[in-house]
Specification:
The structure is a single chain. With 342 residues, this protein is an alpha/beta fold. Strands 1-2-4-3-5-6-7-8 form an eight-stranded mixed sheet, sandwiched between helices. The longest helix has 29 residues. It starts with a helix and ends in an 11-residue tail after the last helix.
Length: 342
């Protein structure tokens, strides 16, 4: 009787594991890699690199997605409106999209920040404005700490950067464990997640509407077992790392702007966004009424104005407007629109 029961459990597990494998292939076929893979020291990061156009009026921009995401998320929001204005890098964080996870150091934001800094070296980018959304902001702020010489400026969108009350969802804690986590990721995450991914994504946008085009960002890629575990480990280890590194934020000197919505139901803007504005001297806080956790989509124009404003502060207009250096600097400047709420 017991042996028959165990055989039944094993058979069921095999069927579910097969289902997960088939769905993984289907998801990857629908959302294939968009860029190239770059070696960053023993593992590879997948990134879309938009080379600097002749018409550029902005410095290089690096976009870092948040939890459960991939590079398509930020690329869908920013590539088209910024096309022709800047060199841009959209990167899958370690373990997400089509990037390798790398070693255990990438369980921490500083490890992921170092990997992205190495990516910029491979691409020949000396300095850039780093744009981070949500958990991607934790990577961005660590980028400024571990690679200040590469940090031209910082733009935080609905950041998650400070110790918060409570923990993370139970399934992330479970999936982060070595053995139980693997079983959960292969047997539970895919069948449970497929039925909830659309509704869950829509909740992230609330109270704003999720645009129809967001379906093309490949949110279901996170349900693949390896990506699900990477995402869970990011979240499970984030709090402890933030407790350790948040006291270092006042050492950041790069021009900084924070864009946050007052209706954010995913992170606490009073804690994270106001905390960054307090901790980084000279930073500017843009507080948006009626906007949730996705100002990158609900207020894309404001986010772009923030990038422009940070670039203007990072590359100030030279005193001698007739010099060759001044002409070169002027080409990197951005016109400031008085209609923008920055």
């Amino acid at each position: 009787m017991i042996s028959s029961f165990l055989l039944g459990i094993c058979a069921l597990a095999a069927v579910v594991a097969l289902f997960t494998a088939v769905q993984t292939r289907r998801i990857e076929a629908r959302f294939p890699p968009l860029g190239a893979r770059f070696d960053v020291g023993g593992f590879a990061l997948h990134a879309v690199h938009v080379t600097r156009p002749e018409t550029a009026d902005l410095p290089a921009l690096v976009f870092i997605h948040g939890a459960s995401g991939n590079l398509r998320d930020q690329m869908q929001a920013f590539r088209k409106p910024l096309e022709g204005r800047a060199e841009m890098v959209f990167v899958d964080r370690p373990g997400h999209g089509y990037s390798d996870r790398g070693g255990p150091g990438n369980d921490r934001p500083d490890g992921q920040a170092r990997a992205i800094a190495t990516l910029l070296e491979r691409l020949g980018i000396e300095r850039a404005i780093i744009v981070g959304h949500s958990l991607g902001s934790a990577i961005a702020v660590n980028f400024a700490l571990v690679a200040p010489e590469k940090t031209l400026g910082l733009v935080f969108l609905a950041p998650a950067t400070h110790p918060w009350p409570g923990g993370v969802a139970w399934y992330n804690t479970l999936a982060a464990r070595p053995i139980a986590g693997r079983l959960f990721a292969h047997l539970v995450a895919m069948p449970a997640g497929l039925s909830r991914v659309k509704a869950g994504t829509a909740c992230v946008f609330q109270p704003n509407e999720m645009p129809d085009s967001y379906a093309e960002t490949g949110a279901a890629l996170v349900l693949r077992p390896s990506a699900f575990r990477s995402n869970a480990r990011d979240l499970a280890f984030l709090h402890a790392h933030i407790v350790e590194t948040a006291p270092c934020y006042p050492t950041i000197t790069a021009p900084t702007t924070i864009v946050t919505g007052d209706r954010d139901g995913v992170v606490l803007p009073d804690l994270h966004s106001r905390g960054l504005a307090r901790d980084i001297a000279g930073s500017r806080l843009v507080w948006l009424e009626g906007v949730g956790h996705k100002p990158d989509y609900a207020a894309t124009d404001v986010a772009i104005s923030a990038i422009e404003e940070v670039a203007k502060r990072a590359i100030p207009a030279p005193a001698d407007a007739n010099s060759e250096e001044a002409a070169a600097a002027k080409r990197s400047q951005i016109p400031v629109s008085p209609s923008e709420p920055i």
